[in-house]
Specification:
Layout lengths: L5 H10 L3 H14 L8 E6 L3 H16 L5 E8 L4 H13 L4 E5 L2 H5 L6 H19 L4 E3 L4 H13 L10 E3 L7 E3 L7 H10 L13 H4 L9 H15 L3 H8 L10 E4 L2 E4 H12 L1
Parallel strand pairs: 1-2, 1-4, 2-3, 4-6
Antiparallel strand pairs: 5-6, 7-8
Length: 285
């Protein structure tokens, strides 16, 4: 009997050992939010981290068995990686049999001397380049590896640091690239499942490979403290008293009671409490 490749072993585990924690939740998000449609051409954006590499493998597996016909491009931007990080991405892609396409940018050089919010600027620039390259290849969607825990943390961060109630949507339309959408197929997949999958197969991925954190990108150490890390620790402590806290936060963004809010922004238009109250009164009369 022919020995299975590493990629085949990984695929088999996603159908069996990790079916409940990863595959089923992946499919749930696709169906619940209608993320993949007939004739889509999707650019799966690979950063080299565990989330995007898992996403690439799941999308590849889905394409083989889905009744929905769609195309895939596995797109990886090199914003200025050092040789070790670039090599690791290439080796992991080869190991998992994911045919990635690289393109180069100078983003790291552009933001390395920026003092205020370099990570935010880097993320914005990355997103723009990914949209542009995907569109050049005839894609109508880009897929990112944000997962369930990213959704929860972003929701809490918006309240504590941004003074707003704002979630991370499972899909959205680009404002700057006409006809393009962003989708998040790992929306319902918990990070614990992804880490368990990574560790089970003894896979080592990048964490963050920017100029500020290259030393920890090649290790399992946590990067320097940030708002997201603080929120992650807060949620972790809350789980000790309220085990369902993450599920509650996730459900809350599906169950917003607009009548109780004091201000709403919809399609770039602001509605304050008085305007909403008056409109409600007029409707009642």
């Amino acid at each position: 009997m022919k020995e299975m490749t590493k990629a085949q072993i990984v695929e088999r585990s996603l159908f069996k050992k990790f079916r409940k924690d990863i595959w089923t939740k992946f499919v749930l998000a696709l169906k619940r939010y209608n993320l993949v449609e007939d004739e889509d051409k999707i650019a799966v954006c690979i950063s080299g981290g565990k989330d995007s590499m898992l996403l690439a493998k799941l999308m590849q597996m889905l394409q083989k068995i889905s009744e929905v016909k769609f195309e895939l491009v596995f797109l990886c931007m090199d914003p200025g990686y050092n040789k070790e990080n670039r090599d690791r991405i290439e080796k992991n892609a080869a190991l998992l049999e994911i045919p990635i396409e690289f393109f180069e940018t100078d983003i790291f050089d552009s933001v390395v001397n920026v003092e205020k919010s370099p990570c935010y600027l880097c993320a914005r620039m990355r997103r723009g380049h990914l949209y542009s390259e995907a569109q050049k290849r005839g894609c109508n969607k880009i897929a990112l590896g944000h997962h369930f825990c990213d959704v929860i943390e972003t929701t809490v961060m918006g309240m504590l640091y941004g003074a707003q109630i704002q979630a991370m949507p499972p899909k959205l339309c680009s404002k700057n690239f006409e006809g393009m959408q962003l989708i998040r197929p790992l929306y319902c997949v918990h990070e614990d499942g992804i880490i368990a999958w990574k560790n089970y197969h003894q896979l080592k991925f990048l964490q963050c490979a920017c100029r500020f954190t290259e030393q920890c990108a090649l290790s399992e150490d946590e990067i320097s403290p940030s708002a997201r890390v603080e929120v992650r620790n807060l949620i972790k402590s809350l789980k000790e008293k309220i085990p369902e806290v993450e599920a509650h936060i996730f459900k809350s963004i599906h169950n917003v009671q607009l009548d109780t809010l004091l201000g709403v922004k919809y399609q770039d238009e602001d509605f304050d409490f008085n305007a909403l109250f008056e409109a409600k009164e007029k409707k009642r009369k």
